[in-house]
């Protein structure tokens, strides 16, 4: 009996390890996709704003308001598209999204802790 329990535990441990690896692969894949989408959205927004700046310098004062409104509309559309893409990705992979959020939170907490301790050491030196 004891031998049977041990092999069941080993089988469960192996299964959990495989599942953890799959979550890690999915998280890595999702973070890559999110980074690519974010970079693409950032480039699109930058291009829109750059074109707007160029257009505004060449716009007659009476058309200025319409041009700014058009630029803001274009930027809003780009942001909405990016937001919808992220929401779709989260809905498609909820567990991996939570795992990524936990990982990012852990990393940010560690960074804040390290920076805080360094700043504390610097301010307490006399």
Structure, described:
The protein is mainly α. Helix content is 91%, strand content 0%. It has 3 helices and no strands. Helix 1 runs antiparallel to helix 2. The longest helix is centred in the N-terminal third of the chain and has 56 residues. The protein is flat and about 80 Å long. It starts with a helix and ends with a helix.
Describe the structure concisely for a colleague.
This protein has 126 residues and is mostly helical. The protein is built from three helices and no strands.
List the helices and strands and how they pair.
Blueprint: H1 2-57, H2 64-92, H3 94-123
Helix pairs in contact: 1-2, 1-3
Give the H and E element order. HHH
Principal-axis shape equals flat
Helical stretch tally: 3
What's the Cα radius of gyration? 25 Å
Point out poorly predicted stretches.
none
- Distance between the first and last residues' Cα: 66 Å
Q: How many strands appear in the DSSP assignment? A: 0
Instruction: Output the structural class.
Output: mainly alpha
Residues in helices, as a percent range: over 70%
Strand content: under 5%
């Amino acid at each position: 009996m004891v031998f049977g329990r041990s092999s069941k535990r080993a089988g469960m441990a192996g299964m959990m390890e495989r599942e953890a690896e799959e979550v890690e692969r999915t998280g890595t894949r999702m973070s890559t996709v999110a980074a690519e989408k974010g970079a693409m959205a950032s480039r699109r927004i930058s291009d829109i704003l750059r074109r707007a700046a160029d257009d505004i310098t060449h716009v007659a004062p009476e058309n200025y308001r319409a041009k700014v409104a058009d630029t803001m509309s274009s930027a809003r559309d780009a942001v909405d598209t990016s937001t919808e893409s992220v929401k779709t990705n989260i809905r498609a992979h909820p567990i991996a999204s939570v795992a990524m959020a936990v990982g990012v939170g852990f990393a940010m907490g560690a960074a804040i802790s390290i920076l805080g301790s360094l700043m504390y050491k610097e301010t307490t030196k006399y």
